[in-house]
Amino acid sequence: MRIGGRWAAGSPPPRGLPTAMLDALRAAERTLPGGEWTLTWLEDRPVVEHDSGYRLALGPDGHVHGDAPGAEESDAPAWDDEDEDDLFPDRPTSD
């Protein structure tokens, strides 16, 4: 289990973040106002969210996905983890 944390935008992020995440954070901070980032770990991969709502996550493919500059679209096919947890799985409709 890894512990997350918070840090001010523009300050050094916590150690242990992959280079791809650090690059995406730097790109996002060029366009974001001040504020803070929150780091959590999900399945041993970092997820960071800025106070403004920008969110970045390291996907299983090793790329950063999210809605911040420098991130790939989170609904891109590479982000789909091919599991069965979809909220509305395909099912026959009744008329």
Automatic annotation (TrEMBL):
Species whose genome carries this gene: Pseudoclavibacter chungangensis
Protein name: Fe-S oxidoreductase
Highest taxon in the source lineage: Bacteria
Record lineage: Bacteria, Bacillati, Actinomycetota, Actinomycetes, Micrococcales
Region feature Disordered, mapped onto this chain: 53-95
Extent of Acidic residues compositional bias: 70-87
